[in-house]
Amino acid sequence: MSEDAVTTGLAELGQLDRSALSERWTAMFGTPPPRHSKSTLLYLALAWNLQLQAHPQWSKAASMGRRKRSLDTVATPALATGSRLVREWQGTTHQVAVLDQGFAYAGQTYRSLSAVARAITGTHWSGPLFFGIRK
Predict the structure, then answer these.
(1) Is the model's pTM score more than 0.70?
(2) Is residue 35 part of a domain?
(3) DSSP tag of 76
(4) What residues contact residue 51 under an 8 Å CB cut-off, 6+ apart?
(5) Which residues sit opposite 98 in a β-bridge?
(6) Does 70 reside within a domain?
């Protein structure tokens, strides 16, 4: 498929309403689109697939930035027992003590920093990222 065909195909997709995008989705993927999906999502997925057809050398995972990272490349620095981690979150200062086996926060012991970050925020966080010890 040529670059001109891709450009034309993308322009054509941009003119379609949700119903027509759904029909294209079904034709392209062999299954109806996810229920309640927005037309923007349908357009983006169809556009991506159209470009993949023109560039088969692209890997979906590599071009979307989903390469698997080894643990060595994202290692968290070792924390010495007795260290204190401090983080301000929504106007409140939170202190975590590093233990031999886990972390102490608010009178409880947690196995991971991510569990502490979840207790503080109520949502999933990377603990090392939340406490600023890894970028």
Answers:
(1) no
(2) yes
(3) P
(4) 6, 58
(5) 103
(6) no
